[in-house]
Structures
1.
Amino acid sequence: MLNVTTIAGVRSRRRELWQRAQTVALVPTMGALHDGHLRLVDRAGELADEVWVSIFVNPTQFGPGEDFERYPRDLERDRELLATRGVALLFNPSTKEMYPRPGVTTVDLPELAGGMCGAFRPGHFQGVALVVTKLLAIAQPEVAVFGAKDWQQSAIIRRLVEDLNLPVRVEVVPTVREADGLAMSSRNAYLTSQERQAATVLQRALHAGEEAIRGGLIDGRAVERRIAATVAEEPLARLQYAAAVDPDTLQPLGTVTRRALLAVAVHVGATRLIDNLLLEVS
Ligand code: AMP
């Protein structure tokens, strides 16, 4: 596995592959890798000749008071995991390499970034959209692979790639879960064992929403209330939002008809967790 820290290094490898007519699938991550990330890597391997992974804890997507400084970092372990998974190139740039001077360019999709997590993390998706645009411009992959666990993020990326005509296919991989249903996340490492138990409430709440819809409830607000009520049953959990939205536009669904995305953000102790469920309603 090539370990590359500079943009020039990535570009040089990319030129070599073009000469050999070989394709690249890029998996952007912030590291502290778990099986969810590795599923993305495996999927990427099915879609291109080489899998490239980036590990960059992007400061511009963290707000003041968020966990940028204490975000889990374990580069040595990540490197070993990726090497044994057949990854050809790891791009692990410094902040200086990615942001040599204060940026003035913004990438914003207000309609998609304003609600859900965006309402509670101002600037977060502008940071995500900017760094992903930069990573796509640097690596110029044929395919970029993201996880459905961060649904709003993947919807924003799909749309920005479409709107900006970026020559990349966006692949979204279903959420990988622990045995008890908790979505895998680097932030799960923050949870105490009691909180870890309590964290299963996210999945339960989404299923309560699903059951309500399958039972005939079609009022989007009422579905959200059903999800919220389930979260309220868990003493260690505090709901940030429950949403029933259109999976592509992320606009709230007045009436749940065909496709719906149910999404929640919950604080379990001091840790903020998110999860979602895509529903096809017949
Ligand atoms: P992160 O390192 O948290 O920025 O995540 C990097 C990529 O992995 C993003 O596309 C995430 O959506 C994806 N990802 C994170 N957790 C999971 C999971 N449990 N299942 C599937 N994809 C995931």
2.
Amino acid sequence: MTDESTVLIFDTTLRDGEQAAGATMTVEQKVEIAHQLDRLGVDIIEAGFPISSPGELASVQRIATEVTRPIICALCHANNAAVDAARDSLKDAARPRIHVFLSTSEIHLLHQLRKDREEVLNLACENVARARGYCEDVEFSPMDATRSDPDYVHRLLEATIDAGASTVNIPDTVGYTTPEEFYQLIRGIVENVRNIHKARISVHCHNDLGMAVANSLAAVRAGARQIECTINGIGERAGNASLEEIVMALRTRVDTYELTTNVDSTQLIRASRLVSEHTGFAVQPNKAIVGKNAFRHASGIHQDGILKERTTYEIMDPASVGLAGTSLVLGKLSGRHAFRKRLEELGYQLTDDELARAFESFKEVAEKKKELSDLDLEALVADERRVISEAFSLDHMQVTCGNHETPTATVRLLDADGNPRQESATGAGPVDAVFKAIDRIVGVPACLEEFAVQSITEGIDAIGEVMVRVESDGMTYVGRGAATDIIVASGKAYVNALNRLIANRDLPQASPAEKVGP
Ligand code: KIV
Ligand code: ZN
């Protein structure tokens, strides 16, 4: 449904979200997220920035072919080659949109573009018109709009709407604005741009001062009807406005905003976990809506209130974001049928092969851990999925360590063809020894930057999840692994990170000139 009381949700997790340092995803992972965004009901998916590399173009193309309900958008600079790459990536899209951007602030014009205002205006119009020649749905963004001269932004918007833009997006590129100021900026556009009735106003807020969501909501009060945002708020630097917060704020405070979205909020948790899994970015426990603690009540008074009447301390029903409670707990006596059924209820559609592997791990863990919660099951499935189509997988590991021992690890990995490769190493500790043995097998230069362990649930037998971040050639790669033994989980996480590194290294790379991103 689209009318003046609906705010369109433009998801840019796969474009701006992926720009977050270390968030590189494979094409398969992006396609899986795009399908989840479709289930979530977002109106527009910004699938990528096709000029940046042939791999990126192919990834947008694949999403555009497979995901047909939402509008699929491709981003481009205001130059002919970039617009043409966006067109090529969308050639099979059922509902294509080309998104052209160009900086408008004096700082960017002077130091980055080295062009004057008239040149920028002409370039913007020329490329919007070019995009419009390829597709009816064209969006234009004056980058760094919140630090630009408002009169110039008005003039530019008027000209780009005349050139064919049907959406004009106002980015707070550096997360500088405040809700009051942004409200005034959007009101100024509504009141001063002659032909604004021919376009939808969109906003795109970054979170450098922690105000991206507040700024976006101020903008809809001023007349914006599209919000650009990302799952878990990931994105360049401090990230973008968080989709789940925007959607639930509009829904919970409908008394204030009197606006709606087309999003099915019960899919939010699933989307959040999928993005966290594929980017390797853990969601902080206190994150609004999707954090582990967002619906947990620790204080006695609060628990007492909740037991008497949920609304005493809960402004949202956990079920409304997809946190359905379950009394079904799986354990070692549970069969494949119950396992599959629970996973389906959690929203997982596994292939037979994936199910067989996940069930095998489930049985292994259930031998050590009496009961497995939904969080445990999700960690197991995620772990199994990481193994599919990767260059190396962990087959066997043996470690000795102790206060009078030199930590020593023997690790056997299987390569993509299933051939075993084994090495041993000693290290400062058991994890160090495991990583060194893996390095000997994989043989790619990588430097460990971060290592973190967390338990998925409570208890001494909890599944441990390890996150590692490695650096190679100026790029960072995140890997994750889960197991009841944290040394095994560490080995899996390290192999996962190296697999990402190898996958990225094998992708066709952009030329330096093309690589300049938004
Ligand atoms: O932050 C920004 O300005 C952008 C534009 C490309 C919309 O991401
Ligand atoms: Zn951005």
3.
Amino acid sequence: MKSLDQVLSASGAPADLQKLILALAQTCAEISAKVRLGALAGVLGEAGSDNVQGEHQKKLDLIANDLLVNHLSSAKVALALGSEEMDHAVVVPGGAPYLVAFDPLDGSSNIDVNVSIGTIFSVLPAPAGKTPGDEDFLQPGERQVAAGYAVYGPSTELVFSLGRGVQAFTLDNQGRWLMTVEKMTIAPAAKEFAINASNSRFWYAPVQRYISELQAGKTGPRGKDFNMRWVASMVADVHRILCRGGVFLYPADQRDPAKPGKLRLLYEANPMSFLVEQAGGVSTNGHERILSLQPTKLHERVAVFLGAKEEIDLVTGYHR
Ligand code: AHG
Ligand code: MN
Ligand code: MN
């Protein structure tokens, strides 16, 4: 089996980008070690604070954030770091010319119940000749030079793309990442969908229509049955789609019409959309391709429809 180092050196990626991916991978291995020990490492439960978006922070949200900030800044692999758990980007003087945006711990509601969680990252080019600030992160997702996630599940896997397909690595007991899938792909047709159905009464008409057609199965207009899964960790739901297909939806809804969705564009939707497109799938906000959107703020939210091409084309078409 090929190691992460071997795959990176053969990738043709710039040396500083390889170093950045290795630093992210090492940090995720450390987060994984804490996640594995759970209560024994004292990492479960509430931190007692809120982030800039008013969400309660868990201890592990902050531990994972600190590990990422400390490692990436001491290794000087990026010029600035943006995180779900930090109001503003942190500058790394003398860092390599990349900006990294991350969701240090995705699926916070699953931490204390021992269900899969993860870390999501997005790598953008840094602007030349200036000290970067929050505004420099506001680049469309199609400019990402790398994106990926680690999933802390029954095994720990690292999935990423440098823009030439999607590979998966599994962490062994010696802390080595070994390539276990050379090319992840998403079939155009799907049999599974993921959505938080408890919000159904708030959905807009196009989503109501699409989901009710899936639920009608063989007896409805689609003429086939669909299965439903919702882990409530985007990392785990998207990982399942990269492994065996399907679609994931987190639409905007009428609970708060001013809110364009729950998930964050820069460190959830963009990196996952990059992976999904690299695997042959499609990702939209119901209207437009997510990777083409011009972000307007660091913690911007967006509606997400991603996965199998035929399904995402259909539900996006329902919005026209
Ligand atoms: P985070 O833990 O980083 O705040 O993200 C949670 C997100 C995402 O991972 C997941 O798909 C979604 O929130 C779950 O939302 P519901 O609570 O509506 O199930
Ligand atoms: Mn998240
Ligand atoms: Mn998070």
4.
Amino acid sequence: MGEKILVTGGTGYIGSHTVVELINEGFEVVIIDDLSNSSVDILDHIEKIVGTRPQFYQFDLCDQARLNDFFKKESDIKGIIHFAASKAVGESVIKPLLYYRNNITSLLNLMDCMQSHQINNLVFSSSCTVYGQPDELPVSERTPFKPAQSPYGNTKQICEEILRDVAQANQQYRLTALRYFNPVGAHPSGLIGELPTGTPNNLVPFITQTVAGLRDSLKVFGTDYDTPDGTAVRDYIHVVDLAKAHVITVNRLLNKKQNQGYEFFNLGTGNGYSVKQVIDAFEKSTGVSVKYTLADRRPGDIERIYANTKFANDVLGWKAELGLEEMMSSAWEWQKRTLS
Ligand code: UD1
């Protein structure tokens, strides 16, 4: 068995895919998740895919005493991937304190435990939301941050600042923030994928639920953007590509290949696709048509964003391989599976 990695939020969407890739690469995985936005059944599904069941602890990372007990028991953890966080942009506007408490307290608690239990390696789940609506496209890691558009986005900016300052003060640390663009799609096994609770906020789950008959029709938010077809542009990335980038990053940290205490990378494909192009790709790859109506812009949405991926490609030696049609067809296979 390889080295032991703690994955917080490991039963969640990106977390579960990363657990699969870590186990495939020979790591031993232990998960902490409070199951606030995921299901314990995911552990069975992970086991079906990889033949090994990760260790699992259910509790909230805001519980510092419980977390400290965990690290006393699991004394051989070599690195942490920290996914666990609240992530609904709209909800964060309504419940800012919940977002600041959950997302910032959990990171502070983890970093306190890293210090007391001598763990030096951490990968942090960040987001392209830290850039706001940037002045330049594509967005590189050197593109300056704009003020966050939501409390959720602000927690990601603040957490990155915490990582930078802590790395500065502790030379033994190797900390990496991975800034995801728009993660979509599902594992090719059809056994894990995104499981939104209630009405989905994100585009692709809304498309698949509409086609599955769970929603009446998709609303395309905004048709008057300054983009080729008037709908907003994002850099969609397959969740399996994203998961693989985490394994590469963990290896890099454990092998002490990261020279700086703190580094950050954009994880996208580098391609910007509009909402209409996403719908077209879905229809083309699945052969099913999507019922949609045109609607006003969604408050808080930005017009266009896509990544410059050169730094991640060159330094991590990682490149997204899966295209938009594979993202759509895998999302649809997963949706069908959740219905049966
Ligand atoms: C945002 C954040 C991202 C965060 C994610 C979590 C930015 C740039 N991105 O993604 O970092 O991880 O929220 O929720 O801040 N759309 C529709 N109809 C729908 C749903 C969405 O037309 O029913 C459109 C949106 O207006 C947008 C695109 O689809 O143009 C993608 O939306 P969504 O999937 O919600 O992701 P972002 O808002 O880009």
